[in-house]
Amino acid sequence: MRGASDASLTLERRLFMARVVTRITQLLLKDDGQDLIEYGLLAALIALAAIVGVTTLGNTISSVFWTQIGAAI
Prior knowledge:
By secondary structure, this protein is mostly helical.
């Protein structure tokens, strides 16, 4: 009796694993929303470049002006 139970359990496990592998394959091959992610990454990259540029420019302008103001005082 135990042999039949083990065989059905093994079959259930194999079917479960086959469903898991099939689902993972479907998720990996699915490309819905890919464009949205690409646009989001591009917007984040542009925002990061703008923040770095504005910060650098602001520090440069600040140091140039405050150096001149400090020298005049």
